[in-house]
Structures are given as structure tokens and as C-alpha cells.
Amino acid sequence: MEKPIKFAMLGSGTVGTGVIKVLQENAREIAKRIGAPLELKKVLVRDLDRKRPHLEGLALTDRIEDILEDDEISVVVEVMGGIHPAREYMLRAMEAGKSVVTANKDVVAQFGKEMFDMSEKRNVDFLFEASVGGGIPIITPLKQCLTANKITEVMGIVNGTTNYMLTKMTECGAEYDAVLKEAQEKGYAEANPSADVDGLDAARKAAILASLAFNTRVQLDDVSVEGITKITPTDIEYASTLGYAVKLLAVGKDSPEKGVDVRVHPVFLPKSHPLASVNGVFNAIFVRGNAIGEAMFYGPGAGSLPTASAVVSDVIDAARDIVHEAFGRIRCTCYGQKKLCPLDDTESSYYVRLLVDDKPGVLGMIATAFGKEGVSLKSVVQTKRSVANHAEIVAITHTVEHRKILNALRILEGLPVVDEIRNMIRVENDRG
Ligand code: NAP
Ligand code: HSE
Description:
By secondary structure, the chain is of the alpha/beta class. 36% of the residues lie in helices and 26% in strands. The chain has helices at residues 14-34, 64-68, 86-95, 105-122, 139-145, 160-172, 176-185, 194-197, 200-214, 233-242, 304-323, 362-372, 402-413, and strands at 5-10, 38-44, 59-61, 73-78, 99-102, 126-127, 151-157, 224-225, 244-255, 259-270, 282-289, 293-300, 347-357, 377-382, 390-397, 400-401, 418-427. The strands form 2 sheets. Strands 7, 8, 9, 10, 11, 12, 13, 14, 15, 16 and 17 form an 11-stranded mixed β-sheet that branches. Strands 3-2-1-4-5-6 form a 6-stranded parallel β-sheet, with helices on both faces. It binds NADP nicotinamide-adenine-dinucleotide phosphate (NAP) and L-homoserine. NADP nicotinamide-adenine-dinucleotide phosphate binds at residues 11-16, 44-47, 79-81, 85, 103-105, 130, 134, 302-303, 307.
């Protein structure tokens, strides 16, 4: 056996605690797999006076220099979260010749290039498996196991909080506000739930997934984002009746004609699609490649031990590279400079729910308004939801460019028989 590989950890909250547990429980197997024992030498904390029973026996410091200047430490694990000072600490660690492992999607999504540039300059590893999908292996599969493919689509349920909320709304017919409160009580949603419910957390993960899948740098600002706040139990009921599940999806597509299209929004997804049956806090990522066909990666997208599973696996990977002196084997894979598809040019089917006057000829006027903009309707349903001479109509369109559906909605808004456009949601992977 080689001498121990020593690492340091920045932060010791939910994920950091999991890392310590995994190391304690699996130390012997991990040592055999690396060919050397793994030793957590120092932990960076903010406040040395705070009691931390889970860190008993470990060397704590509140000075990053104690870690950066320690030549015995060859790997730094960043599980503090946030952008500053996490970004600077990781850059400084790599500059000092240490490999870096992180779970931090914020930094990877916004500063991925800078991180990779530094890792290449100093010939060290920069690994971030836990940044998307928590414990689900997806970064390594995209960078290594699927690298023989041309990937044309990567689609995922990458936010557990919103998937839990949509699942509850579907199962119980509950209102958005009630399920949000429940998600907060269970500790899934933060007191300020915006990053989850407005889609920003998923957008960061979408940028990372698309960059890896399509070998081109996709920045957070390139992702068009819509959250789940506009979803009502009525939309979910219609979806179910029409054969769909409602999901918040991170969607990435790459086509030679349109370019790279990356977005996060709620969708109607056919119940037969593998992602439609991913419920509760679980995550899943669906990949389409020209050799593998379709593949789906499913599992716990967050949580102390599942996320630590990914973090510790990256540490083992970095440690193996140290043992075999093989650093930086898999470098930045964003070598392409593909054009991005503007939102207006993206294509999808749409669900449109309207409140209209309940009188003869109205359906014809609506179909004409859609037709004027080249929007072809796949189905139109009018249900029992009629109130005082008004009727609720739901239309599902065939695939159409986003700009055309927006133009059609503008025309519809101007029709005297249209009282209200109640919702518009994309229908993804509809083969009809
Ligand atoms: P957390 O529970 O809030 O823990 C963060 C820890 O970092 C705390 O112990 C905090 O110290 C410490 N910290 C923050 N700033 C620091 C600083 N400047 N110096 C020293 N220590 C500092 O967060 P977490 O849930 O473990 O998440 C960590 C990272 O993993 C984030 O990037 C997150 O997005 C990612 N992640 C988390 C999950 C999950 O399930 N939780 C899943 C996937 C990815 P104090 O105790 O003093 O506040
Ligand atoms: N807030 C995220 C979620 C977990 O709800 O899935 C951390 O990425």
C-alpha cells in the first residue's frame, strides 16, 4: 500500500457530514480501491468556537492558508456552497497544485471555464459529479461512458423540491401554496424557495448538462427559464385526462439546423415517457445518443449520503490519479463553439387553456386565429367547466415555433369572444 493521500474539506454541513460518514464506513474498501488510504487532514470552518460533535477528532481551521500552504494536502473538497469565496478558494487550491472536487453547481455553471483553465494550467483534476443530480452518476457518464456518441438530447428532472411539489399536486389535487408549505415543513424547500420554484437551480444544472452533452460552453444566461408558480391543479387535471404528467424539465437539444437549445420550464410529458414516472424528490436524466439510443439515469438528486457518494467517488478518482501520476486526463470537453438557438426559434407543441364566450362560432374563430399564424391544432376540448355563458377550452397544438404561438396568443387576446388566456405550457416529446 502507498502512503496516505491527504485531503482537506471546505465546509462541513449536510454534504460534508455525509462525506465524513462515507469515509468512516467504507475506509477499508476505499483504501483498497485507491491503493492507498484516504485521510481527511483538515476541515475549514467559519467559527472555531462552535461545537461540532460530528467533527470530533478532526483538525479544524478557520484559515484557508492552513490548507493551501500544507504540502501534504493534495486534494481539496469544496462543500461550502455559494460563489464567493468558494470560487476563489478553489482557484487558489488548484494554483497551489491541489486537485479540487466540488458539489457546487453555482460555481461550475458560471465559472466552469475558469476552473478548467486553472486545472489545465496546473495539471490537476477538477471534478464535480455531485453538482448535478446529487448522487446520480451523470457527469462522468457524459464525459466518459457516453463519449463515443453524438448526443442530440439531454432532458432531466433535476430539482427534487419542485418534482415533490408537482407530484403532490398531481396525487392530491392540492394547490401550489399548500404543497410549497408542506415542502418547506419537510425541509425540501428553503424559507426563500425562489431558486427552486423559479427554476434557477434547474437552469444551472441545465447549463452544466448541455455543456457536457454538446461539447460547447453553455452559460447560465443562455438558458431560458420558467418556474412552476403558474401551474394550477386545473392544468394538472387536464394533463392527466389528456394522457400527460406535468414536470419541471431541464431540456437541452442540439440540431445542425437550429443549434443548441437549452431551457427550463414546466412541460406536459406523455405518461409513457420514462421521465413521467419519476416522482417525489427523485431526479432523473434522460439522454439520447446516436449509438446508445435512449438511456436514463435515475436516483436521489440530493441528501447527505447520496451527495457524499458522488463527492467521495470524485475524491477517489483524484486520489487514483495521484497514485498513478495521471492528473488531468479528462480535460474540459467544451471544445466546440456551437450557435445557440434563440428562444423564438425553438419548437414545441403547446397546451393552451382559454376562457371564452360560450356561443356558436367561437371555436371556429379560435381555430382561425391559430391558423393565421401557422399554428396547427392537434386537439381541442371543451369540458364541463362552463360558468355563466363562458366555457373553458383547451387546445393542444402540433409542433410549432415559439414565436408563432406567441403571435397566435396575441391575436387571441384581441378577440372579443376570448375572455382570458389562462395558461400556456409546452408539450414535450409528443409524438402525435
Ligand atoms: P450546508 O449544509 O449549508 O453546509 C455548508 C457548510 O459550509 C456549513 O458548514 C458552513 O458553515 C460552511 N461554510 C460556508 N461558508 C463558509 C466559509 N466561508 N468558510 C468556511 N465554511 C463555510 O450546505 P450543503 O447542503 O452541505 O451544500 C454544500 C454544497 O453542496 C452546495 O454547493 C450545494 O449546492 C451542494 N449540493 C448540496 C446537496 C444537498 O443535498 N444538500 C446536493 C447536491 C449539491 P457554518 O456551519 O458556519 O454555516
Ligand atoms: N435544491 C435542490 C433540489 C437540491 O431541490 O433538488 C440541491 O441541488
